Amino acid sequence: MRMRLMLLGGGSALGQALIRLGAEEDIGFLAPRPPQDGWDAASLTQLLDDTRPDAVINLAYYFDWFQAEEVSETRFAAQERAVERLAELCQHHQIILLQPSSYRVFDGSRATAYSEKEEQVPLGLRGQALWRSEQSVRATCPRHVLLRFGWLMDDSPGGLLDRFLRRAEQDAELFGADDRRGNPTPVDDAARVLIAVLKQLDCAAPLWGTYHYGGHEATTALALGQAILGEARAYRPALLEQISPQPHAARADAADEPQHAVLACKKILHTFGIKPRAWRAGLPTLLDRYYRHV
After folding, report:
1. Alpha-carbon distance 152 to 224, whole Å?
2. What does it do (predicted)?
C-alpha cells in the first residue's frame, strides 16, 4: 500500500476488524487516539494539519451511527459538524475521504432492493444525521467514497448483537419482525470490503461516489434472530428456543427503522469487483469473538 492511511475510530468494532485484516495483508493504519471528548472540528483540524495522510477512513462515530440504541440530537449535530469540517480539510489537503453510511438514509417504503440512485428520505434522527453527513461530503470533497452498509453486526458491548443476546438470556419471550427485511453484514465482511476499496484507490483509480454493500441473501429480522440463536446455543444452551413473529408496525422502533432495508450491491461489484459474501458464513466467527469477551 503506497498510500498513508489514517483510521479514525480504530477502537471501534469495525476499526478493530480493519486493523486485524490489514495486518494480515501487510496494510498499516495511523490510528490516533481520540481526545477525551471524541473527535470534533478543532481536534480534526489539528490532526490533519499535522499528519497529512493520503486517505482517511472515518469510523470516528461508528458506534453511535451503527450500534447504539439511542443517541441524542445534540450529539448527532456535533458529529455532523465534525464530518463537515473533516470533508473541508480533506478537500484542502487533497486527502481521499472514505465515509461509511447506512441503509437508514432510506425510508423503507420500497419493497425491492434500493440502488444508489434511489431517493433518500430518512426516518429517524440517526438516518437524518447520516443523510446530512453524506450531503456535506458530496458537496465539499469530490475525492470521496461513501459506503452504505446493510445491517452491521459486531461484538461491541452494548451493540445490537449484545443487546439481543442479553435479552435472549434474560427475557421470557423475544419478538422479531417477520416483515422487516435487510442485508445482515458481519463486521469482518465490512472490513474486507473497505480493504478492497482502499487497494483500488491505492492504484490511483478515480472511483469516487456512493456504493452499497450488504451480506448475501436478504432476510427478515425474525430469521436473522433465529440464526443467531442457533449459533449462540453452542455457548449458552439455556437461551430461548424460539423468537415470536411480530409485525414491523408493532415494533417499538418502527418509526425510526426502515421496514424494507435491502440494498442492491451491483454497483460495487461492477466497479470494484467486490462480491457479496453470505452473512451466515460469518456468524460462527462473530459469535466466538463475542463470547470470548462477554
Report:
1. 12
2. Catalyzes the reduction of dTDP-6-deoxy-L-lyxo-4-hexulose to yield dTDP-L-rhamnose.
C-alpha cell belonging to residue 10:
480504530
| 4-46: pLDDT as tens digits | 999 999 999 999 999 999 999 999 999 999 999 889 989 999 9
* pLDDT (0 to 100) of residue 171: 85
Count the alpha carbons within 13 Å of 153 in the hemisphere toward its beta carbon.
27
3-state SS, 211-238, equals EEECCECCEEHHHHHHHHHHHHCCCCCC
How much is the average pLDDT of 132-146? 97
pLDDT in the model for residue 233: 94
Q: Are strands 151-153 and 144-149 parallel, antiparallel or unpaired?
A: unpaired
Contact (CB, 8 A) for 56 and 95: yes
Query: Which grid cell is 19?
Result: 486493523
Determine, yes or no, domain membership for 235. no
Q: Could you give the CA distance from residue 25 to residue 81 in angstroms, rounded to a whole number?
A: 34
pTM comes to 0.96
State the residue range of the domain holding 271.
5-154+184-217+262-277
DSSP code at position 206: -
Q: E strands within 115-190?
A: 144-149, 151-153, 175-177, 181-182, 184-186
Q: State the CATH number of the domain containing residue 52.
A: 3.40.50.720
| Cα 73 from Cα 40, distance rounded (Å) | 16
Do the domain assignments include residue 228?
Answer: no
Summarize the confidence of residues 217-242 as an average pLDDT: 94
C-alpha cell at 192: 474486507
